[in-house]
Amino acid sequence: MLVSLTFDVEQDCPPYLSTTRGVEEGLPKILDLLGEKGVKGTFFFTAQMAKEYPHLVKRVVEDGHELGCHTYNHERLDKLSKGEAERIIEKSLQVLRNFGEVVSFRSPNLQLPSEIYAVLREKGILVDSSKAVYKRYRGISYVGGVLEIPASVTSSVLRLPWRIQRIIHARLREPRVYFAHPWEFVPMKGVRFDCRFNTGEKALELLERLIDHYRRENAEFLLMRDYLKVFKPERRQEAEGVSQHPR
Ligand SMILES: [Zn+2]
């Protein structure tokens, strides 16, 4: 069983809020929990959050997690020209690579125009997770030389009561790629319902439950970059973006 825990490190509930309580208070709690459980995850930082909280980026890298890129300041790439998107990706990677290797990417709101894959590859990005199975994106494939590993479920699923979410998890195909945001681990108020229900301590308890569940199942927790070893490109497939099957 292949499972991945990924976190998009950004301001609180974009674009509705511009506070950063999630990064300040939520992210250390996530890192404490993963440390306690001996589990590694992938943290897609915006360059803006990395600049404001360099000690937390350092901690992510030092704790053995993967540092990924989530653009500069949560820009929607589908609303920019290709040239503008390219400049933003370039600028974000310049900031993030001061902290370590960055080969994985996730675009804000999971909006990645297909022409951007080639841009990502050119900038040294090898894995992307900007697509979602729940948005009907099927399969795992190399697109423009970048390995696309779609997210399995939307982040608010991880805040549903356990008896409900466990049914959802059991139906997911592998690899099961989850994502959450640091702001979900502090109590959110004054935002739309799906951004606030069960945020704070409850979300943390549920994340612990998810980890314990998969540890009992002897799941392998993979970083996004680890998939490069699981789904190896073949030249022809790399050129054509043909789907591959696990192992
Ligand atoms: Zn985001």
Topology of this structure?
Layout: E1 2-9, H1 21-37, E2 42-45, H2 47-52, H3 54-62, E3 66-69, H4 82-96, E4 104-105, H5 116-122, E5 127-128, E6 140-143, E7 146-148, H6 162-171, E8 176-180, H7 193-196, H8 201-216, E9 220-221, H9 227-230, H10 235-240, E10 243-244
Parallel strand pairs: 1-2, 1-8, 1-9, 2-3, 4-5, 5-7
Antiparallel strand pairs: 6-7, 6-10
Helix pairs in contact: 1-8
The structure holds zinc ion.
Zinc ion is lined by residues 8, 10, 70, 74, 108.
Give a short synopsis of this structure:
With 247 residues, the chain is α/β, with parallel strands linked by helices.
Index terms:
247 residues
CATH class: Alpha Beta
Structural class assignment: alpha/beta
* Biggest sheet details: 5 strands, parallel
Mean pLDDT across residues: 93
Strands, total number:
10
* Terminal-residue CA separation: 12 Å
* Overall geometry: globular
Poorly predicted regions are: none
Radius of gyration: 17 Å
Order of helices and strands: EHEHHEHEHEEEHEHHEHHE
The unique ligands bound to this protein are: zinc ion
Report the portion of residues in β strands. 5-15%
Name of the CATH homologous superfamily = Glycoside hydrolase/deacetylase
Number of domains: 1
Helices, by number, come to 10
Under CATH, the topology is which?
TIM Barrel
The residue fraction in helices comes out at 25-40%
CATH architectural category: Alpha-Beta Barrel
